[in-house]
Structures are given as structure tokens and as C-alpha cells.
Amino acid sequence: MQTNRDLDIKEEIKKYVTFLKEYDGETLRLMEVCGSHTAAISKSGIKKIISPKIKLISGPGCPVCVSPSAFVDRLIELGKKGAHIVSFGDMMRIPGSTSTLNEEKGKGLLASYVYSPLDIIEMAKKEPEREFIFAAVGFETTIPTYTLLLDRIIEENITNIKILTALKTMPEAIDFLCMNKCDIDGFIAPGHVSVITGSDAFNEVSSKYKMPMAVTGFSPYELVLGIYALTKTCINKEKYISMGKSLVGNYYKSVVETNGNQKAQRQIDKYFRKGDAIWRGMGNIPNSGLYLKDEYLKYDAGSQNLNDDKKINKACRCSDVLMGKISSKECPLFKTLCNPLTPQGACMVSSEGSCYQAFKNND
Ligand code: SF4
User: Fold this and answer.
1) Which end of the chain, N or C, is more open, meaning fewer C-beta atoms within 10 Å of its C-beta?
2) Which residue range forms the structural domain that includes residue 87?
3) Distance (Å, rounded) from C-alpha 168 to C-alpha 139?
4) How many structural domains comprise the chain?
């Protein structure tokens, strides 16, 4: 049975969709920087119903896609020395400079995928003589889980687990895109990341570049609301600035607070320090990485200086896709040589990758 609230929401959606459909102002390029947003936008079909003058661009929101080839190479090297490599499923198929974990597994490397980093604990307890390495990739959303893993390792004095980190933070990546003039008019701020960081985490980059940003969720209603609000902020940008009004809007208040999850932030600060990080296809982004602090280095499997970033196919344009310079369709390999069965770049591997989603949903 429909409630009054359901009817109100339907009316609101109708109003937002009509506005987005009929928009005829300056062309706006709005970028999302969250793999789950990439997948949700693609699946929802929103791109096909809004005005062609509002372009939704997929940015570097998939943590697996932006892990450099040197990270995979290092995992393979550790595996060849006898360690059991444990990771999320997508990580198994991401190319290193010559191979993937899956290909090496076929040749005898010990590598397994799990759904939670904590699963490695039971695996390691069953084989105390063997070293276990977790391939720790992710943004602010996933990083607290690694801190729980570290808590358990320390509390239970488990000596045969280490982590290899390629952890990255999002405000610095947005700063990098703005600094490199990626021709973006507004950002759909990452919803899951914002749960941890809070919406205020984006204030600095937003005021530095006068960049409109909207934190939003993943349902069709939340996406439409976020895109509508972001479009309105872009249109009224100068007015908002002259009024001293923030260009960052939080449209995901059910789970995102201005200050975020402070307990999770304290956990991250306890174990990790900031440092520069290589993003696949984008190069070095200052202060965008997190590394174990000196006092916890005995749990690190050698995460420093994993800087090599080789392409498997020289024609792959992942870097331009991640920076919003071209769409996946504009890559000459898209749907020809490159598809989910024979990916030629990281963006076609992960289910949250821009090219994978463009292939799957014919975007
Ligand atoms: Fe790289 Fe394939 Fe995407 Fe082209 S379609 S940019 S080759 S991942």
C-alpha cells in the first residue's frame, strides 16, 4: 500500500527528472569518483533519460583499478617465495607488468580470494608455518576493516600475517583532478567514503577550486536527487559564493554526518600515516596514500616504493578514462580486443571499473 510519503517521493522524483531532462543551459560535466556510484548510475539508466547537456563522467573510483602494476608484481614475488596471497576477487585478475595472480595461481602460486580481510585469520591459524599476505587495497570505506584485522593480529599475537598496502584517500585525488584541469564542473562525492570521512572532508578542495560537490547515496532516488542538487549548485555557483554558502551539499544524511565516523577515523590514525601514492594511469598523487606507521612496520610486507605502473597493452587509454578525458567507448580497444574476458586494462577487470560498466550496460 502506498503511503503519503511514497507519493511525496514520487512527486519529488518526477520534478527532479523533468528538470534534468529539460535542462538546456551550459553543458555540465559531472564526475563520480566512487565505483559503486559508477555501477549504480550505469544500472539505473539515468544517463539515457537526462539532457545531453548534463554529462555524467566516471572517474577514479575503483580501488582495484587504480592499484599500480608494481603492487601486483610484489604480490606475485611474495607468493613465489612461498607466502599465501589473499585478496578480494577482483584483485586476482588485475594485471601486473607481465601476469596476474590468477595466471600465477594456475602455475602453482598459492593465492585465494575472500570476502572479508578478517577471513585470513582462520586461514593463517590453520597453517602457522606459512606466511600469509593480505593485498590491502581500498579507500577510506575499506581501511577501517584493515585496522580491525590489525587489532586481531596484535591481540591474538598472530605472527604469520602481513599486509601489503595500496590504500588511497579520495579528497587528494579530487584535488589532483582539479589541479590538472580535468574540465569537470562538479563532483558527485563518494557516498561510502563520506560515511567515514564526513561531508566536511570535501570542503577544503571545494573552496580551493570553487568546485560544486554533492554527497549522495546509491538508490535511483538518491542518485537523481544528488545530480539535480549538483546541477542546481553549478548553475547558482557564483551566487552561492557571493553569499558565502558552501558548494558542498550532503544529500545522504541518513548515513553521512558532517564529521563522519570518528571512531573509524581514530582507528585509521592509530595505524596509518599519510604518504604519496601512485594511482594506475594517473601517476603520483601527493599525500593520497596511507602506510603503516613505523611502530607497526613488522606487519608490512614491503608496501613502500611500489611505483612501477606498466600497461599490458600500450593502446589502453585507462588513464584518460580515469581522468575523465575520454569515455570508455572512445578507446580504440573497447569491445574489440578489450572486453571482460580479455581485459586490456584495469578498468575492464573490476565490476566497479568504468570500462566494465560501460561494456555491461552499453553506456
Ligand atoms: Fe583500457 Fe580496455 Fe578501457 Fe580501453 S576499454 S581504456 S583498453 S580497459
Assistant:
1) N
2) 69-169+262-299
3) 5
4) 1
Cα 142 to ligand 1 centroid, rounded to whole Å: 26
For a pocket test of ligand 1, which of 69, 90, 317 has the largest count of ligand atoms closer than 8 A to its C-beta? 317
Residue 357, domain member (yes or no): no
Q: What is the pTM of this model?
A: 0.92
What is the CATH classification number for the domain harbouring 128?
3.40.50.11740
Q: Measured from the CA of 315, which atom of ligand 1 is nearest? A: 7
Tell me the one-letter amino acid at 53.
K
- Segment 319-357, tens digit of pLDDT: 899 898 999 999 999 999 999 988 888 899 888 889 998
Taking residues 174-200, what's their average pLDDT?
94
CA distance linking residue 137 with residue 291, whole number of Å: 11
* CA–CA distance, 64 with 139 (Å, rounded to integer): 10
Q: Give nearest CA residue, ligand 1 atom 8.
A: 345
Residue 63, in any domain of the structure: no
Gap from CA of 333 to ligand 1 centroid (Å): 6
What Cα–Cα distance (Å) separates residue 321 from each residue in 46, 280, 286?
20, 11, 21
Rounded to the nearest angstrom, the distance between the alpha carbon of 348 and the centre of ligand 1 is 6
| Spatial contact of 139 and 190, defined as CB atoms under 8 Å apart | yes
pLDDT above 70: residue 173: yes
120 is a domain residue: yes
The C-alpha cell at 122 is 582462520
- Residues near ligand 1 with C-beta < 6 Å? 313, 316-318, 321, 328, 331, 333-334, 338, 344-345, 347-348, 355
Residue 208 domain-assigned (yes or no): no
